[in-house]
Every structure is written in C-alpha cells, then in structure tokens.
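Continuing from the previous page of notes. For each protein in this section, the sequence appears first, followed by its structure tokens. Read the first protein now.
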Amino acid sequence: MSSPQAWVAPTCTGLADLLAAGPPTLWDAPTLCAGWQVRHLVAHLTMAARLTPEQFGAEMAAARGDFGVLSDTVAQRDGGLPADDLLAALRSPRLHGWEPPGGGALGALSHAVIHSLDVTLALGRPSVAPDGALVAVLDGQIAADGAWFGTDLTGLRLEAADAGWSWGEGRTVRADAGALVSLLAGRTLPDGTVLPRT
C-alpha cells in the first residue's frame, strides 16, 4: 500500500459487511467504548461522512470546544439513525477519503481501525482491518510512545501472535495484532487485560 489511507475503505466496508450480515440485535450490543452500543460507535466513526466542516464547527461550538462532549452528543443522537443510513456512511467515499485535522492519513486509518476493533473484539469476531493496516497502526502507536491514549509502555515487550510484530523489552504482553492495537488505545479487552496508564 502506498498510503495508510488506502486501508481505510476496506476496514470500513468490512465492518459494514459484518453488520449487514448479522442480526439487527448486533446494533444494540456493547462495544469496548464504555456506554456506547454498536450503533453509537458507528455513528461516531462515520461523523465525517455526515458532517460538513461547517457543521462540525457548529457542533464543536455547541460543545464549547470539548471534543469529548461533541463525540458523545453526536454518537447518542446519530446512533438513532436507521441501520441502512449508518451502513451507507461506513461505505461512503467521503469517509474513506477523510483525514482528521493534524492527523493525516495515519490518523484516518487509526480512527477506522481502532473503532472497528471496538466493535469486533467486543462481539468476539475477527478483525475486519487488513493485516497491514493493523501493523501500520501499531507502528504509529509505538512511534508516539503511547501518547495518543496515555498508555505507559515502560518495561513492556509487546508481541503480535498473528503478525510477526514485536517491540520493547520487559514483561511480555502477547496477543493478536488487533488486540494489541486496542490495548495501546487504552481499551480494556473482554478478558480484562489492560495496559498501565501514564
């Protein structure tokens, strides 16, 4: 792949395909994001497919500059959209070409991969992100020294059991690449595994 951006579309469409093939009850299942069902998570992931920059600016102003408040407001509101609308947003070329301000192509890919894993890991399903995308996001998280989500990597060795990827020295944390991405993103896995925070 010439750019991480090229992995965004298959990640998002893979999640759409998984949800479209499942029972409607999947939309109400919990995710790794506390308090968010699948519908809320997808509504958050696909904001860029629905909101113009001007609309996003208005939402941010309404949230008084607090992105956390904006995210929860939009997720709760737009999570009530029909499933077909949310699936269409996941498949939207506008979403696939979006880059977060200051985040670039890797930021866009990380957004898609991490949030898709919030769904698939919680549901006990395989990752929908391409293997290369998972490794690219792992490399980005390590390059940031865990700072994206405040994880403390001191004294840890991370090993991807399914990707031949490893980093660090110390206490070994071995898991599939997708699970490592989620751990580095500050998530608690369904089995209770979590990385220390800074």
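Done with the first. The second protein uses the same format. Note its length before scrolling.
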Amino acid sequence: MDGLGLRTRIDDIGNMYGRYANADNEGAAPVVIGSHLDTVVPGGRYDGILGVVLALETIALLQERDVHGSRPVELVNFTGEEGARFAPAMLGSGVATGLYDVDYAVARTDAEGAVLGEELERIGYAGDRHNRLGEFSVSLEAHIEQDTNLDDNHLSVGIVDGIRPVTWSTITLTGPGGHAGGRAQVDRQDPLVAAARMAASVDEDVRAMDGAKATIGQMNLHPGSANVIPSRVTFNLDLRASQESSLRDLLNDTSEKFAVIAEEFGVTYSIDTYWRMPEAVFDEDIRTVIARSAETLGIQTMTLTGDIGHDSLHLSQVGRSAMLFVRTSGGISHAEDEHVPWPALLDAARLYANTVVELIK
C-alpha cells in the first residue's frame, strides 16, 4: 500500500487500511475492497489472501490509468478473520462495523494464554479507534469458493447471493464413570456411547435437509484413560442451514432428540449455543453490476451461496455489500495444496477491477 502511495492507517483492532482518493472525491463515502491475510494451520496461499491481492492489483490498475471516480477506494486487510488463533472468527470486521465491542475483542486469548490486545501492542499494530472503517457506499470482497461448484462447471467466478447462517454449540454429557471391567454393558451409563448416538442422529437428520450441514470437529473425554468408562464427554456441534428459520428449527429438533438419547442412556445432558453467525443477503444492485461487467468481459458466471463466514457478512449488516467466489482446484481450502488455476485468477482480477470501476463512477 505504501508502494502505491495510498494513505494508510491502522485501527484499534489492527485492521489495515489504504485509501486511494483525490481532491475531487475525498469527501464521498468510499467503495471498500479487500479481505484478510490471516489463515489457519496448516493453511494455503489463497483463501482471503487472494482477496487482498486482487484489491491491491485493482488499485494499481486504477493508478496506472489515472482513473478516479466520484468515490474513493478503501482497501482493507481485516484482522483475525479465521479465528484460528484468537476466537471468534471475523473479529476485525466485527469491531470495525461495531458488532463486537473492542474491549471484548482485545481481551481474547490464544491457546498459550497470549492476549490479543497485548500482541497487537507488541508488534506495533494497536492503532487508533478513530481510524476504523466509517460509512461506506458499497463493499466488494473476492474469496476462493471453498467448494467444487465452479470447478465442476469449469467456471472461473461465481456471484454470491448470500451466506447461510451457522450456530456453534457445546454439548456436555456426564455419567458415573467406572472401571472398564466393572458394570455389565447393559447396566452402564456411558456418556460416550450416548454422544455417538447423538452424532449419528444429527447426521441422519441433516442428510434429509437440503442445504443443511452438521459437523462435530472436537470431542473430549474425561478422565481419558484406556480402561475407564468416561464420566464426562464434551463435543462441539457446528450446524448450518439454508436460512435462519430452518437453522432454528434444526437446532431445536436436535436439542430435543439429544435430550431423549441422554435419558435413554441415563446420563445428564446440557447444550450451550455460544456463537451464532446470522444469515447474510448480498445487495442485488451490486450483483447486477458484477453480472453486467462479466457479460461485457465475456466471462461466464454462476450464482452461489456461501456456507462459510466472511468479513463481508459483517459489512452486510451495516451497508451494501457483495462477494465474488473464485474457482479452486478440487474445492480444496484451508490446506497447503489450496490452489486457484491461473486462468481463473486472471478472469477474477479482470472482473473485480472492472466492477470497482463501475462502482466508483
């Protein structure tokens, strides 16, 4: 951003901004572009990174051709989109849009006990509250698809109509425990077997729902000894559905079925739904601009809906926002062999830049 001569700043959660403006458009609400640079372990080289690179390339092209519209362009690299080190996800955009309190955000800790605010201070990225993203005209983010729709259809770019909602819950089951050689199998109150039945139950339900997904990615057993029936089992449950009402019904039905299973196995049960990601619907007018730009460039697109949170979800809660998805080989993401075919990347760069030109007119 310094190399492009942008006016840079950092806000109080470490978000990085670069402004491309001139005297004629300085006072207008900007067009916001960009994404995030953080990744997961072990992550790849594209994910949100591609969105930042395409935003930089777009401003470079505008600069080369001395193009200025009626609005400035604001490039943003948001802090901690993944939530991989400091949960929850999308912290930077959450603070920038006022959806997260900054005191809550900077108090987040990682697995080693490091505090986010202290880490920002340590690396010199604890900026000023007044540098946060303000009112904007529209926002546009590019991101890899993280699915196979574009790859299966041999298309470079998809226009995203929205993002499906998500809930994260922690389920806790407790029982008396005991020695593996003790009680007969039929007399056990085993929370692990109950948890296994719950996993099978929610999987069966979700398979019957169009657009729904259920994932159990963590399970912890206490005391965790090879010859001891566990006395406590906790597991996470990630639920996703096509819309808010469907997700709410799925969560309620799942909780009721889990309670029945727990009673059947004689274990106590609780569910704590500790994080929700709301449904996002992206701006129809911006999507129309993208589609027209694609038609002008001869780039075929398809409409896609996201199943994964992005910074644009937060931006869409406070302003007009849209996203492009870019083809990934085999739909692989959050992995070191994450890859975007070069022709798809070039199509995305052309479409992104031309759309921004239309948005700043």
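What the second structure shows: The mean pLDDT is 97. The chain has two domains: 7-163+279-359, 166-277. We return to this in next week's lecture.
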